[in-house]
Request: fold
Amino acid sequence: LKATMVYVTHDQVEAMTLGERIVVMKDGIVQQVDAPLTIYNTPANRFVAGFIGSPTMNFFSGRITDSLAFESDDRQLRIPIPAADHGRLRQHAGRPVALGIRPEHLLGRDGGGSATRINVNVEVTEPVGNEIFVYFTLETGRQQYVSRVPSDITFTSGKPFDLFVDASKLHFFDGETGVAL
Reply:
């Protein structure tokens, strides 16, 4: 028999570093059980996606268009969906969805390939050594989002800046149930 140790923590960093398997619970109900990186990279639902990761995942409400792009409700954000995701997302066209983007997938430079440029208003920058957390809003929005970029990129608070979305790393969730699509 292999000995199993169960360790309970509310600290997600501790869980990610110590655990071989993590159980994420909400209100006493198991949301997902898996290896730490599987939970991080393929969260089962919006709750898990927002719970694991620091800074937390950015969420945008919108719809998948008939031309297979994500368009935010306020129409300030439009991101073409990579061809590799067309098959699983085509059936959700026209329905409410939430788009999730981790801060490290909002790039400070054009990553090429599937990167989509978005113009943002830089609100606050937080240098933390080898990287900078850039807190921003979209054109006319009040909702604040965060990007995690290398420290050699220069930003000015209160000024517009182009970020690049790594579209190969997008997460989609049903707009009503929150289940990953």
Notes: The longest strand covers residues 115-127.
